Amino acid sequence: MNTNLIQNYKSFLDAGKTERECVSALVSWAEKEGFKDIYKTEKLCAGDKVYVQKMNKAIALFVVGSESMEKGMNILGAHIDSPRLDVKQNPVYEKDFIVYLNTHYYGGIKKYQWVTLPLAIHGVVCKKDGTSINVCIGESDEDPVFCISDILPHLAQKQMKESAADFISGESLDLILGSGIPSKNDEAEDDKKDKITAKKLILNLLKEKYGIEEDDLGSSELEIVPAGKARDLGFDRSLILAYGQDDRSCAYTSARALIESSANTKRTNCCLCVDKEEIGSVGATGMGSHFFENAVAEVIARLPEGYSDLALRRCLANCNMLSSDVNAAYDPMNGDLFDKANASFLGGGIVFNKYTGSRGKSGASDANPEFIARLRGLLDGAGVKYQMAELGKVDQGGGGTIAYLAAKYGMNVLDAGVSVLSMHAPWEITSREDIEQAYNAYKAFLTLE
Ligand code: MN
Ligand code: MN
After folding, report:
1. Confidence at residue 1, expressed as pLDDT on a 0 to 100 scale
2. CB under 5 Å of ion ligand 1: residues
């Protein structure tokens, strides 16, 4: 067992609970290993290592190969956004002596899973003067944490009769930031203009400690995530319990495979980590944008072969890609949701998903069997454990990845990643064995010619 890999994986999860934190961790890691910012590089040749990042939320890392880019690249493509609660732009309010932070959930969550947990605030607050304040509160032992309350069982008769989708409403997912002290003559107090309210006290603290004014929250990107570190799970420590393993389990192993890959390959190798997958790959930093295509164009433009539209199109059409994204692990407690012969098991190795989608494969990027056969040969040769699966039983639901967006260019794409139990929950479960097999598979993939 590669203990260094697992240790570093857990540290990566702890340091990267937002897409911005992941990009900044990847940039410093890559720079240590000789990668350069492409915009500080004029010319590129075989063996060079560069990265292109977009708005601090998406990044593409390249190791330039010896053959023409027109022959295509080997790409490992993951996403670094995870389901969470985002903070609204006018978020702080006080209600009956408790001060709250108003949120809007991001991605597919079961809302009831986010109450009565210690939560942390991560993100950035941008000031009018052009400076930005990085925020991370709730992770160190000295920090306070935050929490969303729930109704006590004694008074929950009505709540317990509602459907699970409704009994915690999206609008009620607001974080407790602090509390005031009710006074007996409160109504008389309310008339006093200079009354120090609990909200004012909290805002004063934000100003003193972080230099943040209430209005600055209008230009903030703050994310509420579970507070605490990735942990070993089980007496045998065979499993990992952590936030954000969809899809950072694949992002970490993909990035590590690329960063450690040989600089002497024929094909150019690439690791792509994009944002916004959980809400449909939209926006300037999602896979639906031109970010990746533009990044590849920047690489080609710096090579001796030079840029042309045709060279870029040929390059993208000739790529091999693993869409490094997670799959639902078979859940023995809910076995009836899975077709057992076509389910992925914790510890069974990296999962190949020929197609995702829902109902009649709607939204799927169906991988070519010719490509899958090549990968089977490659992984069998390298002694890597893999399993073939789909998400769950037909007509039970479904999901998607970035695969179909990459496939638009005409490249070969296969979904290949780690199995996750309790996917999209605040704390998700993976197997150490699968993290290791995913890493081995991605490493082998980057040798494909
Ligand atoms: Mn995912
Ligand atoms: Mn997801």
Report:
1. 66
2. 246-247, 325
In this prediction, residue 212 carries a pLDDT of 95
Instruction: Report which residue type is found at 446.
Output: L
Long-range contacts of 205-210 (CB under 8 A, 24+ apart): 205/178, 210/125, 210/133, 210/135
Q: Calculate how far, in angstroms, residue 359's C-alpha sits from the geometric centre of ligand 2.
A: 18
Ligand 1 centroid–CA 327 distance in Å is: 8
Q: Which ligand is nearest to the CA of 83?
A: 2
Question: Same structural domain for residues 379 and 255?
Answer: yes
User: Do residue 193 and residue 266 come from a single domain?
Assistant: no
Q: Strands, DSSP E only, in 264-411?
A: 268-274, 320-323, 327-328, 350-353, 357-358, 386-388, 398-399
Is residue 232 assigned to a domain?
Answer: no
| Structure tokens belonging to residue 141 | 């032992």
45 CA distance to ligand 2 centroid (A)? Answer: 37
What's the gap in Å between 424 CA and the centre of ligand 2? 6
> Are residues 359 and 423 in contact, defined by beta-carbon separation less than 8 angstroms?
no
Name the DSSP class of 67.
S
Are 226 and 113 in contact, with CB atoms under 8 Å apart?
no
Q: How far is the CA of 193 from the centre of ligand 2 (A)?
A: 48
Ligand 1 centroid distance, CA of 328 (Å)? 10
Q: Which residues of the chain have pLDDT under 50?
A: none
What does the pLDDT read at residue 399?
86
Residue range of the domain that includes 197: 84-226
| Residues in Cβ contact with 310 at an 8 Å cutoff, skipping those fewer than 6 apart | none
What is residue 398's predicted lDDT score, i.e. its pLDDT? 86
* Coil/strand/helix, residue 409: coil
250 touches 438 (CB < 8 A): yes
Ligand 1 centre from 391 Cα, in Å? Answer: 12
